[in-house]
Task: structure prediction
Amino acid sequence: MKFFRHTLTYFRVCLLIITICSCSRNLRASHIFGGNMSIEVIDKLQSQYKITLNIYVDMYTLLPVELDNMQNLAQQVRFFSKKDNKRVQDAYLSFEKMTDLVYDNYSCAQLRRLATREFTYSKIVVLTSNQFSDTQGYYLSWARCCRNADIDNIKNANNTGLTMYVEFPSLKDYPDYSSPKFKIPNGDYICILKPFKLQMAVEKKMQDTEIRYSIVTPYGSHNDLLNYDNPPKPGPYPSVLWGEGFSESNSIKGSPALSVHPQTGVLSVKANQTGLFTFTIQCEQFKSGKLIGLVRQDFQLPVVDCRVNTPPEGKILYKGQVTDEVGLCPNESILLTVSDAGGSYNFQWQKNGENLLGENTPRINVKDFGDYTVIKSYQALCANDTISQIVKVKPLILTEFLPLPKEFCKGETTTIEVIPLRTNVDLSWSKNGKYITNGTRIRITEPGIYKIYADATKIEGCYSEDSIEISLKKEPIIKVNPTRASIYKGQSILISVESSESNTLFSWSPNKWISNINSQNPEFTPQQSTTYTCVAETEGMCPVKSEIDISVIQSLLIPSAFTPNQDGHNDIWYIVGTEQFEEIEVSIFNRWGNLIFYSRGYKDPWDGKFNGEDLPSDTYTYQIKKGSLDENYVYSGTVNLFR
Result:
């Protein structure tokens, strides 16, 4: 009998343990309904990357012991090669934080038992370029079984797993790679027959990439009820089986069915069937037109019937008045309230379309700039809700720029002027961050970013700043060829002008000795040295000036004789025209070919002497090199010296 009692007790204990384990397995699997993963470069020189796993959990089906496990147990992820699906590396991610998703309509969330929490796990790992060098790329995965049995759009949901999945390129080719990262969405549900939108955008970690969104069939996993938390196996991963009438393009039925905007990531649907529906948002990442990576987010949304009633729309008030725009002083706050706040209503404030955690009263203290709205719903009734007008909270502007052109031409002067919108405002200006002057206006001659500071701390309690960028207007690029020229008197020269614009008009000045003052390639025959100016004008651009100097050269007048007898007449060998040539060289030789005189520039003409001694009357030979025009031509001849 004693043996029987011991045996019965042992049997009961075993049965209890089996029951607890069975319940734990089933409940542990079904509370996870979605999530995403990402990879982000931390230090490419050290090959360090941060792996992040976000898991969405239904808190109504999560047991306390499972909550403890999720905060204390690491999550195992694996890296595989796309080329051959071979495992490359494992990583164990540690719990980082948990964040509750905020629902617009608190009453409906409570009555429909909607409570979602995001659990975040992460780890910084070393992924070397040698290890991850294959040009076909790699993928990262995490798997579990199973999904919520209440899901209506897939078959055998309670025995269908889910796989979080990221693809990334060769880290040898892209050492600074970071995948897009999904932002935490609003907690939400869909009202049947009511247009619905939900932002599912990612944060771009690589700014020079293009993002494209699509709805795809969720992945299942190789896990089942008996090995629900085994590490992920290599891909490819099985897709879930859609239920009757459901598909990738019809995961939530409606008119229209669920879709995502390919550029913005906004979900939209007007559902015509209630239930709980799962789907996957895929975000592909392109660089220079080439697909380099992708991330996926599994999510689920309930469609409920909330057509019973609609509360009156709340209007946002500032200082008791309905408004669409409010100015906010830096480091200050303003109070926004809701009209018709009496009665049994819930409120949920939003900034830029995202629900603000804890802001669910008829008033909010705003400290940040952005677009604010408030959703109003019944406290004890799951019905339609209403959304207020958008109130734009902007920096308080104390000045207003007077209209002016934001472009001007080089060499011009323009004036920037503001009108103070408050009295007793101190105004100061800066250019590119450097203080210039005080007052309501400034005269400028250079492009730049000009900022006006309005200090009204004595009255308004704050200051404001505004800026305007003034740039130089474009001008055609012209090239004059040549820009300097020398010609003999009576000769002509052709000047050509090239312009970067096809519709450029030309004008020349002065209007002397020129074939056509409006020609692009005029011919010049100046009778004296002249500087010509070409003005090139193109519609919508600034005029451009360019100058060309044309020197007119007189022929040299070389005397054939001179009489250096100190009578004041013809005592030096003066050559007319040498002043035109700064580098002119004059050489004189005696009848035996000896050099007796040399001068560069010929500032002091020959006086008939050699080494200070008078030379006898005779015939001497000269050579003259001009040194500029016709620099290779040598003038030679004889000169007679008479005493």
